[in-house]
Design brief:
313 residues, alpha/beta, 2 domains, 7-stranded parallel beta sheet, 5-stranded parallel beta sheet, 10 helices, 12 strands, NAD, NAD binding, Glyoxylate/hydroxypyruvate reductase GhrA
C-alpha cells in the first residue's frame, strides 16, 4: 500500500511517521513535483493540479480539514485536479468539536453577560451596571446541524440556553428545535437573539448571512461566524451594525485571509476578530481517523466522511 502526503505548511515528517506507525504495512512518502510513482491513497491540502490529476487509480483522497470547499473550488477552477471516480473524504471531528464548543461558549457568554459592553464602558471610564440578559429572552440559533453544529448545540443546552438549529435537511438533535429547508429558514431566524454559523461552504449557502436574514433576527442580535467568510455579505453586516439591528459580531473567517489592513472590520468598535483559529486540525486525532478509514476501505467496509459532490460536503 502506497500513500502520498502533501500540505503546504504541515510538518510532513510528523505525518509520515504518524501514518506509518498506524499503518505499518504502508509505504508513506511526501509528494514532490515530478513524483509519478504509484499511490493508493493521497492525504492533501491545496494540492497542485499535477499531483492528483493523473492518478485515476487512487482508492481515496483525504482532505486534511473538516471543510472540503477549498479542494472542490480547485477542481472547479482547474477541472481534473480531482481524478474522476476517486472518493474524496473529509475529517469529521478529530478534536475539532471540542475546540468549536470552547470558542462558541466563550463568545456566547461574553455577549450574554454583556462583557463586550462593559469593556467599552471601561474604555470610557464609566461605572454603569447594565440590565442582565435572561435565558428566556436569549434564543440561540445555529446554522448547520452536522457534527460541529450538534456538539455546539449540546454544550449550550447544558448551559440552559434555548437552542434551535437549521440545516438543508432534517436533523434530530435532542433538546434542540430543528428547522430545515428553504421554507423554514425565516421561521428559524425569527426571534433569534444570537446566531452561530457552522454551515458548510457550498453554492447554496454562499452569502446566506445577509440583510434578509438579519431582518428576521431579534433587534440588537449577535452574530458569530465560525464557518467560512463566503457565507457573509460584509456590507450587509456593516450596515446592520450601524443601524443597531446587529449589536455586535465575532468573526473568525473572512472572504480574504489574512484580512487586509484597511478593511473596516479592524476598526469597527462592535466587531471582534480572530484569525481563523476556531478549530484547527489536530494531527494525532486526524491520523487516527484517516488510518481507520483506510483500513475500512481495504477491508471492504464503508468509510466515514465520504464527500457528496452534489451537495459540496
Amino acid at each position: 500500500m502506497n500513500i502520498i502526503f502533501y500540505h503546504p505548511t504541515f510538518d510532513s515528517k510528523q505525518w509520515i511517521d504518524g501514518i506509518s506507525k498506524r499503518l505499518p504495512q504502508a509505504k508513506v512518502r511526501a509528494w514532490h513535483r515530478g513524483d509519478t510513482q504509484p499511490a493508493d491513497y493521497a492525504l492533501v491540502w491545496q494540492p497542485p493540479h499535477e499531483m492528483l490529476a493523473p492518478r485515476t487509480t487512487l482508492k481515496g483522497i483525504f482532505a486534511l480539514g473538516a471543510g472540503v470547499d477549498a479542494i472542490i473550488t480547485q477542481e472547479q477552477r482547474q477541472p481534473g485536479t480531482l481524478p474522476p471516480g476517486v472518493p474524496l473524504l473529509r475529517l469529521e471531528d478529530t478534536g475539532m468539536s471540542l475546540q468549536m464548543q470552547e470558542y462558541a461558549l466563550a463568545v456566547v457568554l461574553r455577549y450574554f453577560r454583556r462583557m463586550d459592553e462593559y469593556q467599552l464602558l471601561q474604555q470610557q471610564k464609566q461605572w454603569r451596571p447594565l440590565t442582565p440578559h435572561q435565558h428566556g429572552d436569549f434564543t440561540i440559533g445555529i446554522l448547520g446541524a452536522g457534527v460541529l453544529g450538534s456538539c455546539v448545540a449540546e454544550k449550550l443546552i447544558g448551559m440552559h440556553f434555548q437552542v434551535r438549529s437549521w440545516s438543508r435537511s432534517l436533523k434530530d438533535i435532542p433538546g434542540v428545535k430543528s428547522y430545515f429547508g428553504d421554507e423554514q429558514f425565516h421561521d428559524f431566524a425569527s426571534g433569534c437573539k444570537l446566531l452561530i454559523n457552522l454551515l458548510p461552504n457550498t453554492p447554496q449557502t454562499a452569502g446566506i448571512l445577509n440583510k434578509n436574514l438579519f431582518s428576521h433576527l431579534s433587534d440588537n442580535a449577535y452574530l458569530i461566524n465560525l464557518a467560512r467568510g463566503m457565507h457573509l455579505v460584509e456590507g450587509d453586516l456593516l450596515r446592520a451594525l450601524d443601524s443597531g439591528k446587529i449589536a455586535a459580531a465575532t468573526l473568525d473567517v473572512f472572504v480574504e485571509e489574512p484580512l487586509p489592513g484597511m478593511h473596516p472590520f479592524w476598526s469597527h468598535p462592535r466587531v471582534s476578530i480572530t484569525p481563523h483559529i476556531g478549530a484547527n486540525t489536530l494531527p494525532e486525532q486526524a491520523m487516527d481517523n484517516i488510518a481507520a478509514n483506510i483500513m475500512a476501505m481495504e477491508e471492504g467496509r464503508a468509510p466515514t466522511g465520504l464527500v457528496d459532490f452534489a451537495r459540496g460536503y
